[in-house]
Each structure stands twice: as structure tokens, then as C-alpha cells.
Amino acid sequence: MPPQKLAVVVGNDAYSTAPLSGCINDANVFNGVIATRGFNDAKAMADVLKMRGFTSNTLLNANKAPILAALNGMVDCAIPGNNDKFIFFFSGHGSQVRDASGDEADGWDEVICPIDWPQYISDDDLRAIFARLPADATLDVFMDCCHSGTGTREIDSNITIRSLPPIVGKKARKTKAKTKAIVLVPGLNHVLWAGCQDGQTSAELIINGQVRGAFSYYLCKALTATGTRSQMINYVCAKVAALGLSQVPQLETTQAETLQAPFT
């Protein structure tokens, strides 16, 4: 059979703590972009969590359990040898928690924040799900959220930071920001597109009359054009920098995938 193209797209605005305004906009625009790339709806979705191509469930809130169920359902659809294409897109708050598994040198796990925060989904949770993908499958993960855990604060009336403070009640460490937009990780079984470095914050602001994540806005622009992943992330980085923001979007992948166009 031809390769499947399946996606889970999440945009979370309605947090009880520090609500956001641009994440559903990000998800809706991204959803439209990937529709032009063959990721078609099984059923029209009008709510926060959209799942393309493999489910007809409509969910009012993107809580932890539905997100994990959607991701597991997507991975369960993978067929070895079929060269399937998968997407996970998340726009919302990010934070950090103390590393419980001992696999983080700095002692912190990066997490994404569902609507039912302080429930969270850690990088370990995602890694365990993605590890079940067949070797020939391709997964692009897009995250427009903060990984620094420095707290939610408004810089000015037009810019909001997408970060919630760590559950432990202390600000997490600030790591030295990397300057490279592309980080090669040999053997990585997915491609990570991050809105910022793990020691930085991701911003949302008004762009062309709509509240959007800076990373998501230019990412969607890049995805509507032709080009390699390397060319796309460099374009996004240049556009985000031109806004005067300190965040540096990043692509983590293998050398071969930097030279490929996504979703092909």
C-alpha cells in the first residue's frame, strides 16, 4: 500500500494558569498546511486537538490522556516496510520537572503542558512512544513551546512567553544557549523541530493582525514552499531573529534528513 500520512496536531490556549492566545491559531494554520501535503482528515475537526487520517474522535480539551492516546494510536498504525510519514505538532506551554530516570546530565526533563497541567508529558514519555516506530517510518515533531522553565511573564503588551514554572516550585537552570540551528544526532529515529533551545523561551505575539507563535508562523511559511529541512530551519531562524526575539529555533536530526524535504 502507499505510505500513510498521519498526524496529531495540538494547540492549547485555555490554561487555568497563564492562558495563551495564539496556540489554537498555530494549530489551525499548521493543519491547513499539512492538508496540502497529503495529511487529510478522516473527519472534520473543529476543536483543540486534531488528529488527521486515523481517527474520528473529537476532543474538546487536549488533556494528557487524550494526547497520549492519540500518539499511541498513531504509532500503532505504522506498518513496517511501508515508509509511513507521521507528524506530532504541539503549540502551548512548556516547562521542566526533576529528572526521575537519571538519563539527563543536567537533572531536568523537558515537558509539554496539557490543558490539565500540572499533569505533563515528558521527553521520556514521548521517547518511549516514538521508539515503537518501524525503522523505515519518518516522524517530524514540531514543538512551539518553552523548555527553560523560567516562568510565564509578559515582556510587553504584544509578546507573551510560553512557559510554566517547574512543579518543584523553583526556577530551573538556564543552560547556555546553542548558536547552531541544526544539531546532528546520529541514530535519532525522528526529526525534532523546536521553537527554541532548551535554555530559552518561545514567544507569541501579534503578526499580521493575528496572535501567533513566532516559530509556528514562519514554520508554516517555510512548509508551504519547497526546500530541504536544513533550508527551512535556516529561513525560520532568520525570520525569528529579524523580529528581535532571543529564541533560536532548532532542528535535531540525522545528516541525511537535513538534506531531505519533509513529508516526502
% residues in beta strands: 15-25%
In DSSP terms (H or I, runs of 4 or more residues), the helix count works out at 6
Distance between the termini: 15 Å
Q: How confident is the prediction overall: mean pLDDT? A: 81
Overall radius of gyration: 17 Å
Briefly note the structural class of the backbone: alpha/beta
Concise structural overview:
The chain is α/β, with parallel strands linked by helices and 264 residues long. It has helices at residues 23-35, 64-76, 123-130, 214-223, 229-242, 255-258, and strands spanning 5-11, 49-52, 85-91, 94-98, 108-112, 121-122, 138-144, 154-156, 159-161, 182-184, 191-194, 203-207, 210-213, 250-253.
List keywords for this structure.
Rossmann fold, globular, single chain, 264 residues
Explain what this protein looks like in three dimensions:
- A hairpin with an 8-residue loop joins strand 5 and strand 6.
- The chain has a seven-stranded mixed sheet with strand order 2-1-3-7-11-14-10, sandwiched between helices.
- The protein contains six helices and 14 strands.
- With 264 residues, it is of the alpha/beta class.
- The protein has one domain: 3-Layer(aba) Sandwich (Rossmann fold), CATH 3.40.50.1460.
- Helix 1 (23-35) runs parallel beside helix 4.
- It has helices at residues 23-35, 64-76, 123-130, 214-223, 229-242, 255-258; strands at 5-11, 49-52, 85-91, 94-98, 108-112, 121-122, 138-144, 154-156, 159-161, 182-184, 191-194, 203-207, 210-213, 250-253.
- Mean pLDDT is 81; it is low at 42-48, 55-60, 148-157 and 169-178.
